[in-house]
Amino acid sequence: MALKYACITGSLGNRVDRFMAGGYKEDNTAAERIEGLAKTGVVEALELCYDPDGDEKDPVEIQALADKYGFKISGVNAPLNGDKRFGYGSLTNTNPEYRALAVQYCKDTVDFAKKVNAEFVNIWMGEDGFDYVFQTDYTRQWNLMVEAVREICDYAPDMKIALEFKLREPRNRCTLDTAGSTLLLAKDVDRKNVGLTVDLGHVFQAQGNVAQVVEMCANHGMLYNLHINDNYSAWDDDMMLGSVRYTEYIELCYSLRKIGYDGWTSVDIFPFRENGYAAAAESIRMMQTFDRAVDLIGYEKLTECINGTDATKVFGLIREAIFK
To answer: Which ranges of the chain would DSSP assign to H, the alpha helix?
Structure first.
């Protein structure tokens, strides 16, 4: 099984933080981002960020750029962040006008995704959650989200709708904070085309194990997409993959083989200062290295070590195969 690699285009622009509102680089265009990814030689597909007011809004133009450089389009992210109207929630906003707008944005993203032959629409609801106690009616918020996601799924039953979870940011607590809560929501939505995007950094931020999470999602038939990156666990740093961890990625690659994962593995990093294209390429090459490590160690040998008891044998295998 060979993993398929994509890259989120929006993360390769001029990223800003709260101390540098103008960013550390010059702004660029969708055409420049796509050309830059083409030069890496390791990216197979684009994961787009639909923006009705940005430069990834014209499906004809984007498809032409993708075709020019031989890219497929894996999926499209819905624009539910960066809009002041969604400051207190998008799909769960208690203002029915704003909530309806958020749902419409997702439907518009579906329409866009179909025109560029994307396989899924990714929905990350970073603004849906709460910051303080006694701020939110949790039951109502949950039910509003179920209703909204169900409406989006019913709008396009032939399009995969991938829900992305995250512990926190921009809200102090996100409603879809972990894989467990997101799987529960997907079960409540009860539609065949709803599943999950697993962002590795979001799992690490929640002190989770990525191999366990992908197997759990796959066990329910709901692992639609992977976002790959790294962090120090305290925050969603969106660093280059492999810059912090090694063995957890080897286990992840083992699990991806075990479940027969055939979805996309998409680079999702925020290279504020580094060359974004080089950082994306290095993340893919590191993931490929971890995947090859499974062969160096031996898939069957690793399987034999998984017995729920002594963990020393597997680390001996890794050391002898990788660091000899």
So the answer is: 30-38, 59-68, 96-115, 138-155, 179-189, 200-205, 210-219, 247-259, 276-297, 299-305, 312-322
The tokens for 102 are: 């958020």
CA distance to 19, 64, 129, 172, per residue, from 135 (Å): 28, 46, 10, 12
What is the predicted pLDDT for the residue at 57? 95
Distance CA 152, CA 193 (A): 10
Fill in the amino acid letter for 33. Answer: R
What token pair was written down for 50?
Answer: 């639909």
Residue 168 contacts residue 216 (beta carbons within 8 Å)? no
What CATH fold (topology level) applies to the domain 4-295?
TIM Barrel (3.20.20)
Cβ atoms < 10 Å from Cβ of 308: 5
Query: Does residue 269 contact residue 229 with C-beta atoms inside 8 Å?
Result: yes
For 28-69, how does the pLDDT look when each residue is reduced to its tens digit (9 = 90+)? 999 999 999 999 999 999 999 999 999 999 999 999 999 999
- Rounded to 10 degrees, the C-alpha dihedral 100/104/107/109 comes to -130
Instruction: Report the alpha-carbon distance of residue 81 to residue 285 in Å, rounded.
Output: 30
Which pairs count as long-range contacts for 303-311, CB under 8 Å and 24+ apart, including other chains? none
Domain boundaries, the chain: 4-295
Q: Which tens digit of pLDDT belongs to each residue from 271-313? A: 999 999 999 999 999 999 999 999 999 999 999 999 877 899 9
In this structure, are strands 223-228 and 264-267 parallel, antiparallel, or unpaired?
parallel
Closest CA to 186 of 222, 137, 231: 222
Whether this prediction's pTM lies above 0.85 is answered by: yes
**CA distances (Å), 41 to each of 36, 38, 132, in order?**
10, 6, 46
